[in-house]
């Protein structure tokens, strides 16, 4: 599938047809080449990369979607919104959108090559509760792993809540990792509990997910380097839930991670 076709489907909010999928990548290496080509097209038209999303870190949903390892994609200035606990996001232009409650990190510095957990922790400035709106241009959310990569890592929107300096939560990577892994989240729609999840669902903890991503990004040919100021959202603690305009969702993370509400337009 040509990068121009991938970008046009994303811009127009339309599903891939059978011919486009037949021309798509069949392995992850080709899929990342396509995704990086789309990234270059978006930069050329003025969009600015703001960080990254890590997808399929939650092992509890691998069987459901048929993807059995993490992937990553770019977060953009046009897809990122910050708030202090409640925010609004438009679903306009998204395709089959779903919602994921996650923990987001903000980087103070790029981690070194082959970073340890403690070296990754040393490069993190803050963390925050987040909602990622994911999407799929494959009909019915039926796809291959390569297709999810070519589809921008399924990223559509990211709402980041109130930020907390990581050193206010823990003095080391091990301590932060343990605290996040043991934390839970309750996902509510219109006040009704939909699902509960755990931090350990995402590769045993969000900091482990971040370390995995750092190594994968560094090993990907042609991939950009991480930068100070990048945000990285580390994967859903629950399943991804279908969305409609007009809905309100709420995530309650165990203290002191905080709460986050999202209104969808």
Report the sheet with the most strands, covering strand number, pairing sense and barrel closure. 9 strands, mixed
Distance between the termini: 31 Å
* CATH architecture classification: Alpha-Beta Complex
Q: Give helix and strand order, one letter per element, not per position.
A: HHHEHEEEEHEHEEHEEHEEEE
Tell me the Rg in angstroms: 17 Å
| Proportion in β-strands | 25-35%
Name the shape in a single word: globular
How many separate helices? Answer: 8
Alpha-beta content class: alpha+beta
Share of residues in helices? 25-40%
Identify low-pLDDT runs: none
CATH C-level class is Alpha Beta
Beta-strand segment tally: 14
Name the descriptors.
265 residues, alpha+beta, five-stranded mixed sheet
Describe the structure in your own words.
With 265 residues, the chain is α+β, with helices and mostly antiparallel strands. It has eight helices and 14 strands. It has helices at 3-12, 18-22, 28-44, 62-65, 117-122, 145-150, 173-181, 206-219, and strands spanning 49-55, 71-76, 80-82, 86-89, 98-107, 124-134, 155-160, 164-165, 184-189, 192-198, 231-233, 241-242, 248-253, 259-264. The strands form two sheets. Strands 1, 2, 3, 5, 6, 7, 8, 11 and 12 form a nine-stranded mixed β-sheet that branches. A hairpin with a 2-residue loop joins strand 9 (184-189) and strand 10. Helix 1 packs across helix 3. It starts with a helix and ends with a strand. The mean pLDDT is 96.
């Amino acid at each position: 599938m040509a990068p121009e076709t991938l970008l046009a489907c994303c811009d127009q909010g339309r599903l891939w047809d059978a011919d486009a999928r037949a021309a798509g990548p069949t392995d992850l290496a080709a899929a990342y080449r396509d995704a990086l080509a789309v990234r270059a097209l978006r930069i050329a038209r003025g969009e600015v990369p703001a960080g990254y999303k890590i997808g399929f870190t939650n092992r509890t949903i691998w069987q459901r979607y048929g993807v059995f390892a993490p992937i990553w994609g770019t977060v953009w200035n046009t897809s990122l919104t910050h708030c202090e606990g409640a925010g609004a996001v438009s679903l306009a232009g998204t395709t089959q959108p779903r919602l994921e409650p996650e923990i987001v990190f903000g980087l103070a510095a790029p981690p070194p090559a082959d970073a340890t957990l403690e070296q990754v922790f040393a490069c993190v400035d803050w963390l925050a509760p987040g909602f990622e709106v994911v999407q799929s241009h494959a009909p019915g959310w039926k796809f291959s792993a390569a297709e999810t990569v070519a589809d921008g890592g399924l990223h559509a929107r990211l709402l980041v809540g109130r930020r907390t300096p990581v050193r206010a939560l823990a003095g080391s990577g091990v301590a932060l990792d343990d605290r996040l892994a043991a934390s839970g989240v309750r996902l509510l729609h219109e006040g009704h509990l939909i699902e509960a999840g755990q931090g350990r669902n995402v590769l045993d903890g969000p900091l482990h997910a971040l370390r995995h991503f750092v190594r994968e990004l560094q090993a990907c040919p042609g991939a950009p380097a991480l930068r100070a100021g990048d945000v990285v959202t580390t994967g859903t603690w629950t399943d991804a839930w279908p969305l409609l305009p007009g809905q309100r969702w709420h995530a309650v993370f165990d203290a002191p991670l905080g709460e986050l509400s999202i209104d969808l337009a």
